[in-house]
């Protein structure tokens, strides 16, 4: 078969240029990436061989090898893992992030550290080889395959694929080093890089033939899985590099959890919480990313039963001797041992988070990154709700920082029997909400909730310290029983008969646009506001669902008026005197639209709104 030449996607060529020339600050990273890929390939073969032993027959001693050729200026990294066929070469080495690479590139900014973290999540570690190589060859044969293949490229315009009858199982990557990368032809330099970045790899990384290619082979790493060592034997740098390997990440771990559970079920967990959000954190499948091993044999990195979805940001490995080595992914879903491991893992992670929460600033950074995900557990995990509520942090009207429920309850006022909250788009907008006015006047703290998940868990009857959660934007305000430290001066209210006349005018004019009109006990400064009735969907949730479903119509809400506000008193007096008039009807609609605007909604009829406002302004100027 003659050589077949294919071109990279235009976006791939651009991305390669960014990777090679802009993002990596340390060129030696290429060796870490290639060794990690080789380790993954061996893990995949070891798992596949559990059900197809023939795949590994005759070459069961899995390892990664390096070979130097100073005369040819080449460095070769090889493994005897799962290997690739022709389609794998095209899909894995000729395409990056096939679904939307162009859009992805548009999102890259000018911060190299953040950009490399983003790009790294799309599996481009292999392409870091072009930082040091002018030409890269991949000789490979897939386990069980009949044909070997050679992929070759200079990392610019495209790549060629030819048959390679001599390619053994696995992959052999030959780097033709650039002149300014000659340092990687020195044994001492390879020792340093492997020791720094790949000492945690559970397979031996062997330098074949020493410096001149004719000497004794030398194993450059400890070749023992990092999680099998005790904490005292592992340095922070080794933990960090293992996190980079297992999480395919470029940031540093925010928290490292390494422990061994002993007793009826024994397992080892080495888990990491990232510092930055993984790129797939909010994808619909909510896939977890902890690898499962049985006696150091890789089983799967897609085990739904290992951690709940609300801990999907956790990376790492779990290794157990109590699961059968030939367990299938399907059997794992109903395995009682795995269920007990899951319980232990979740308990340990939440316990360590509780300890970290004592460092207010560090925990605030974690909560800002993953709080919205962790709160999904309040909706899904009834058993651990109290633990999760204790870990939760919220913005509130108390100040600019985050508060815990423990803090909130300690500041509750005499007569207050609920934890009050309000939901909305942003903290800044919520702080200005008229629905808060009565609570703020009595010094009652209100939680400001802005994550979509808040709409769901707050509606499930949760309690904290026997205190229920109540929305300040739903139902009638229950402020009478709460004692204020300083009694605020209450403005004179409009007479009851005039207020009744105004309410009748508003109901008659607005009709089905409002569910009800009533005097508010929550307003102190604003003239009016809209609230959801008792048992009705919150205004914010209804807006979220409308946006998601593409609907325009909104259900009727309760219009509350402030009987002590100057505008309302003047309108009430006029309504009692005139009963109705075109001017009063205009004012009724303007009052309603004003309440809508404050809630972030457009006027019900923008053209009519503008016309009414013009008429009112004209009347005031005449």
UniProtKB/TrEMBL annotation:
A GO CC term attached to the entry: cytoplasm
Function summary: Molecular chaperone. Has ATPase activity.
Main location: cytoplasm
GO molecular function: ATP binding; ATP hydrolysis activity; ATP-dependent protein folding chaperone; unfolded protein binding
Pfam family, one: HSP90
Key words, A-Z: ATP-binding, Chaperone, Cytoplasm, Nucleotide-binding, Stress response
Start and end residues of each Histidine kinase/HSP90-like ATPase domain: 26-181
InterPro entries reported in the protein's UniProt record: HATPase_C_sf, HATPase_dom, Heat_shock_protein_90_CS, HSP90_C, Hsp90_fam, Hsp90_N, Ribosomal_Su5_D2-typ_SF
Sequence positions that bind ATP: 33, 37, 79, 84, 92, 99-100, 121-126, 329
SMART domains, alphabetized: HATPase_c
Region (C): 544-622
Keyword Protease: no
Intracellular or extracellular location(s): Cytoplasm
Family per record: Belongs to the heat shock protein 90 family.
NCBIfam families recorded: PRK05218.1 (NF003555)
Self-association and partners: Homodimer.
Region (A): 1-329
Name of this protein: Chaperone protein HtpG
Keyword hit for ATP-binding: yes
């Amino acid at each position: 078969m003659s050589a077949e030449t294919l071109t990279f996607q235009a976006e791939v060529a651009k991305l390669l240029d960014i990777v090679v020339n802009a993002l990596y600050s340390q060129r030696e990273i290429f060796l870490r990436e290639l060794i990690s890929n080789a380790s993954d390939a061996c893990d995949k073969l070891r798992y596949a061989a559990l059900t197809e032993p023939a795949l590994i027959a005759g070459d069961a001693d899995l390892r990664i090898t390096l070979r130097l050729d100073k005369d040819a200026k080449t460095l070769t990294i090889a493994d005897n893992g799962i290997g690739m066929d022709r389609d794998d070469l095209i899909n894995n080495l000729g395409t990056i992030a096939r679904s939307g690479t162009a859009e992805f590139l548009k999102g890259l900014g000018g911060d190299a550290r953040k950009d490399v973290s983003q790009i790294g999540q799309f599996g481009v570690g292999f392409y870091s080889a072009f930082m040091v190589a002018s030409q890269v060859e991949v000789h490979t044969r897939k386990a069980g395959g009949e044909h070997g293949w050679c992929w070759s490229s200079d990392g610019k315009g495209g790549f060629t694929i030819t048959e390679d009858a001599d390619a053994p199982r696995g992959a052999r990557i030959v780097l033709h080093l650039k002149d300014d990368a000659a340092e990687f032809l020195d044994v001492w330099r390879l020792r340093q890089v492997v020791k720094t970045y790949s000492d945690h790899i559970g397979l031996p990384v062997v330098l074949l033939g020493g410096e001149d290619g004719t000497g004794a082979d030398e194993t450059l790493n400890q070749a023992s899985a990092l999680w099998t060592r005790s904490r005292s034997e592992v340095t922070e740098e080794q933990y960090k590099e293992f996190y980079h390997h297992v999480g395919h990440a470029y940031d540093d771990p925010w928290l490292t959890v390494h422990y061994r559970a002993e007793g009826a079920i024994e397992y080892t967990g080495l888990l990491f919480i990232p510092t930055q959000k993984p790129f797939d954190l909010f994808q619909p499948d909510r896939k977890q990313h902890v690898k499962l091993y049985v006696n150091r044999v890789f089983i799967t990195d897609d085990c739904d039963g290992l951690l709940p979805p609300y801990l999907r940001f956790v990376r790492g490995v779990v290794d157990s001797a109590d699961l059968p080595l030939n367990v299938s992914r399907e059997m794992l879903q109903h395995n009682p041992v795995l269920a007990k491991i899951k319980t232990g893992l979740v308990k340990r992670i939440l316990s360590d988070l509780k300890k970290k929460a004592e460092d207010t600033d560090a925990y605030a950074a974690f909560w800002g990154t993953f709080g919205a995900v962790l709160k999904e557990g309040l909706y899904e995990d009834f058993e651990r709700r109290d633990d999760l509520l204790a870990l939760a942090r919220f913005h509130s009207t108390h100040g600019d920082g985050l508060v815990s429920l423990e803090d909130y309850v300690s500041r509750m006022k005499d007569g207050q029997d609920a934890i009050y909250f309000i939901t909305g788009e942003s903290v800044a907008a919520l702080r200005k909400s008229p629905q808060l006015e009565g609570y703020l006047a009595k010094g009652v703290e209100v939680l400001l909730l802005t994550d979509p998940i808040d709409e769901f868990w707050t509606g499930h009857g949760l309690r904290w310290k026997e205190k229920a959660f109540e929305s300040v934007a739903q139902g009638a305000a229950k402020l009478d029983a709460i004692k204020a430290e300083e009694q605020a001066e209450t403005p004179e209210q409009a007479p009851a008969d005039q207020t009744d006349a105004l309410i009748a005018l508003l109901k008659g004019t607005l009709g089905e646009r409002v569910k009800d009109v009533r005097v508010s006990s929550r307003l102190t400064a604003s003239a009016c506001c809209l609230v959801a009735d008792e048992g009705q969907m919150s205004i914010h949730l209804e807006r979220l669902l409308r946006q998601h479903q593409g609907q325009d119509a909104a259900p009727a809400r309760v219009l509350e008026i402030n009987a002590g506000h100057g505008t309302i008193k003047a309108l009430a007096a006029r309504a009692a005197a005139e009963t109705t008039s075109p001017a009063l009807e205009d004012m009724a609609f303007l009052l309603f639209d004003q309440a809508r605007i404050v809630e972030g909604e457009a006027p019900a009829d923008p053209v009519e709104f503008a016309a009414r406002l013009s008429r009112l302004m004209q009347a005031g100027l005449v």
